[in-house]
């Protein structure tokens, strides 16, 4: 049965405020807080008014200039300018396109937040109007404050985290995305040089396969996907096998084995990965020991041959990842209801049947979200690749050697931006990687119905 | 195969696997006690043993100031673990116990934002911090603290939320009948019942900065005074330093790994305690 939406003009919504509000309420659209003043909510009204004044002050003093800057990204290159009055060359610093972009983005967010507060102000005004009409009690300012610790506790507790999430997650992501549409590369480095908007040029360069950049992109993307598949599923399968072996009824010293594997992940990753990198160098410990034992004549090319390096990182990632899966699955195994097994045994099911009909489906069901996040995590597995190989062996085919055969898109992104200062291409890669991982996880999550079922995360 | 043969086989496999998994760790410990310099060795055990690697690591601070890095990391980790824990517990509580209009939207948003690797925003964060002037000298550490406490890490509140979900709602309702506000319910009822998961959150947010490599590398850059332990140790293994510093790297690694490993294992315990729920039947 479809729920009929009943239009209630007294519902406190933005639309109703404009359509059915009285003079004071509508006046709040221009002079924020007017509706609150009319109903003696002085404190609240003053706050809305203050927000409005601050906003217009900001826009007049800085905001408009920043928005203009966002459009032009700077026009004055800077440099030495002849000062006729003083008869000397004067150095002017010029415009910094990067700061223009940053401040412009910031201003966009300020406008966005102002519009939110503005709409909220209208709703608040309409609420006071409706409440006054029915003679219901309107909160005083002090009561509003008190409500922050009770009915509105969520506003109070979430304010800090939300500010942080905007400042350190959402704004940076928008800023990064905007850079993808500029030519902010190594030849356009502010200050001293300007960059400007170039539309979709960077995407074209990245996605076409007839230049060094596109060639590198498609090959690295291929390897990234191969890596993510191997890294995720091998870890998953072996982790489950290990957990099953340890949790068998007849296995002795269960907690000792568990402890050993947990110990290996308890040590910070950069320590264990850096150690393994040195151990596997051409004259590192492993090669020397094998040579001394007479097993090999020449050093094994762990990091110098492309195929060897790729297989080696996958194998070492097993060392890193298996204990994680083992831990997860151990927890799950202990939670499988014992009654299921007892019933199955009574029906005469053998160990194999029990495994495939009970244990495995249960594990699969509970670990699907884990599988999805670890797949996305592996697409972006910076640590393992960067600390082990740094992307080596370098391939000259890949955009003149900016990338190597084991580079993932993230490590390449790191090199392009931090080492080569090609921020525009870095940003393009970020966007493409995000699209890749977000589509994948959304499809997978939808299919496994995790989004609808919150309990699956518990 | 008889049952006994199968058992022997399983235990043999476990022993082999344990050796493989422990070998690198054992190797670091061996190097840290080795008297010979350099990263290339021809023997498994050191030829001569020494404690000097540990003592010089803390006393010889001209080139690489390990005690200073240790202090940097400790301060950053302590401050950011307090703030991050407060944030994570707050979000988890709000999402678990309180109902409001935007809740569903926020849950989904945080799920999607959590899929962005923190790494992607990092370069932009660096510029934002630079724009506010937090990338000069000692302020770099402040910047690092802010990023660790307010960065994308706070989106990992799902474990904590899952724990709060297991606390019976009747407790809240009873308290509300007695006139308690939501804030009082949060601080006087929910939090005291949630010790394992709060400790778990504190430990994860404390361990994070010690193990993080990327963020600190981007934000700190090349200023050795403000290194955290992770980048400092990484630098010891760069081509120009590795011969001189390899053994001291190992002793530094041991110094960091032992406490972190202990905390990590403690964290696992609290995690499992947390999974079994707040009020045991």
Report on the structure:
The complex is a heterodimer of chains A (458) and B (281). By secondary structure, chain A is mainly alpha-helical. Chain A folds into two domains: 186 residues, no CATH class; 253 residues, MetI-like (MetI-like fold, Orthogonal Bundle), CATH 1.10.3720. In chain A, strands 1-2 form a two-stranded antiparallel ribbon. In chain A, β1 and β2 form a beta hairpin. Chain A is flat, with a radius of gyration of 31 Å. Chain A starts with 13 loop residues before the first helix and ends in a 10-residue tail after the last helix. In chain A, 36% of the residues are buried. The C terminus of chain A is likely disordered. Chain B has 281 residues and is an all-alpha fold. Chain B has a single domain, classed as MetI-like fold (Orthogonal Bundle). Helices cover 72% and strands 0% of the residues of chain B. Chain B is globular, with a radius of gyration of 23 Å. The model of chain B has no long low-confidence stretch (mean pLDDT 85). The chains are: A mainly alpha (458), B mainly alpha (281). At the A-B interface, α5, α7, α9, α10 and α11 of A face α1, α3, α4, α5 and α6 of B.
């Amino acid at each position: 049965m479809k729920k009929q939406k009943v239009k209630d003009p007294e519902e406190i919504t933005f639309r109703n405020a404009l359509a059915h509000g009285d003079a004071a309420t509508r006046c709040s659209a221009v002079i924020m807080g007017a509706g609150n003043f009319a109903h003696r909510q002085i404190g609240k009204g003053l706050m809305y008014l203050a927000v409005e004044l601050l906003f217009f002050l900001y826009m007049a003093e800085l905001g408009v200039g920043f928005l203009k800057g966002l459009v032009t990204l700077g026009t004055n290159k800077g440099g030495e300018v002849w000062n006729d009055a003083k008869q000397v060359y004067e150095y002017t610093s010029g415009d910094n396109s990067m700061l223009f972009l940053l401040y412009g983005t910031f201003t966009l967010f300020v406008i966005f937040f102002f519009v939110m507060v503005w709409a909220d102000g209208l709703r608040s005004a309409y609420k006071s109007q409706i409440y006054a009409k029915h003679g219901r009690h309107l909160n005083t300012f002090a009561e509003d404050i008190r409500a922050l610790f009770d009915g509105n506790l969520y506003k109070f507790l979430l304010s800090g985290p939300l500010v942080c999430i905007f400042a350190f997650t959402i704004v940076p992501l928008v800023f990064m995305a905007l850079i993808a549409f500029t030519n902010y590369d190594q030849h356009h480095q502010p200050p001293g040089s300007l960059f400007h908007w170039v539309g979709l040029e960077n995407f074209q360069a990245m996605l076409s396969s007839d230049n060094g950049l596109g060639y590198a992109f498609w090959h690295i993307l291929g390897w990234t996907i191969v890596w993510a598949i191997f890294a995720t599923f091998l870890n998953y399968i072996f982790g489950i096998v290990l957990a099953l072996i340890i949790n068998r009824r007849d296995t002795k010293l269960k907690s000792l084995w568990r402890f050993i594997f947990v110990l290996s992940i308890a040590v910070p990753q950069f320590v264990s990965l850096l150690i393994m990198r040195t151990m596997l160098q051409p004259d590192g410990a492993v090669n020397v020991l094998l040579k001394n034992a007479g097993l090999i004549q020449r050093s094994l090319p762990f990091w110098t041959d492309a195929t060897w390096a790729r297989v080696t990182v996958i194998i070492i990632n097993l060392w890193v990842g298996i204990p994680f899966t083992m831990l997860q699955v151990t927890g799950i195994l202990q939670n499988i209801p014992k009654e299921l097994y007892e019933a199955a045994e009574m029906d005469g099911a053998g160990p194999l049947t029990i495994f495939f009909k009970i244990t495995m489906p249960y594990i699969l069901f509970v670990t699907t979200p884990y599988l999805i996040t670890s797949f996305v995590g592996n697409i972006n597995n910076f640590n393992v690749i960067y600390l082990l190989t740094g992307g080596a062996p370098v391939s000259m085919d890949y955009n003149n050697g900016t990338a190597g055969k084991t580079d993932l898109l993230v490590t390449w992104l790191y090199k392009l931006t931090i080492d080569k200062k090609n921020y525009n291409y870095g940003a393009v890669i970020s966007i493409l990687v995000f699209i890749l991982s977000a589509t994948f996880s959304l499809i997978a999550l939808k299919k496994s119905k995790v989004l609808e079922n919150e309990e699956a995360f518990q | 195969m008889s049952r006994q043969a199968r058992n022997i086989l399983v235990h043999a496999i476990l022993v082999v696997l344990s050796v493989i998994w422990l070998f690198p760790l054992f190797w670091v410990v061996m190097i840290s006690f080795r008297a010979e310099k350099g990263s290339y060795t021809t023997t498994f055990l050191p030829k001569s043993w020494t404690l000097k690697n540990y003592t010089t690591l803390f006393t010889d601070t001209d080139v690489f100031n390990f005690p200073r890095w240790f202090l940097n990391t400790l301060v950053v980790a302590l401050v950011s673990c307090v703030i991050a824990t407060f944030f994570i517990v707050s979000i988890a509580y709000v999402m678990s116990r309180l109902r409001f209009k935007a809740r569903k939207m926020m849950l989904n948003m945080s799920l999607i934002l959590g899929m962005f690797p923190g790494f992607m925003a990092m370069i932009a964060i660096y510029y934002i911090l630079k724009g506010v002037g937090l990338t000069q000298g000692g302020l770099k550490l402040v910047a690092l603290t802010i990023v660790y406490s307010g960065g994308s890490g706070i989106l990992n509140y799902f474990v904590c939320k899952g724990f709060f979900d297991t606390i019976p709602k009747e407790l809240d309702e009873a308290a509300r009948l007695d006139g308690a506000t939501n804030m009082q319910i949060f601080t006087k009822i929910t939090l005291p019942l949630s010790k394992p998961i709060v400790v778990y959150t504190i430990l994860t947010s404390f361990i994070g900065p010690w193990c993080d490599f990327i963020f600190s590398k981007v934000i700190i850059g090349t200023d050795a005074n403000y290194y955290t332990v992770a980048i400092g140790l990484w630098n010891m293994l760069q081509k120009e330093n590795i011969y001189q510093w390899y053994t001291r790297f190992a002793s530094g690694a041991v110094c960091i790994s032992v406490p972190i490993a202990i905390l990590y294992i403690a964290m696992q315990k609290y995690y499992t305690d947390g999974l079994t729920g707040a009020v045991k039947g």
